[in-house]
Amino acid sequence: MTWSGTNQFSGTCRCGEAVGEMLGGTMSVSQGTFEISLTVRSPPTDRWSPRGTRHGETVNQDGIDLLRVEGERIAEVWLFSSDPVEEDAFWGAV
Fold this sequence. Notes:
By secondary structure, the chain is α+β, with helices and mostly antiparallel strands. The chain is built from 2 helices and 7 strands.
């Protein structure tokens, strides 16, 4: 999974454990407020709406996840937010 941007969670996770740690980190930083809702199902580019609160600031924007599927399994995922500058500011620098 590759998360675009320059925030502390940006980059590439190459295994399920790393993806779990990254998602756990978003929950920790947002004090459990982070959630992602599927807004449009249109593989391979589903649209998601991430929301959360951190230090009194909120993030609520649309994003696109691009999936590469092999057989019946997701082989790769790329995450793109609609406003990467806002998302980077929300999550904080690396």
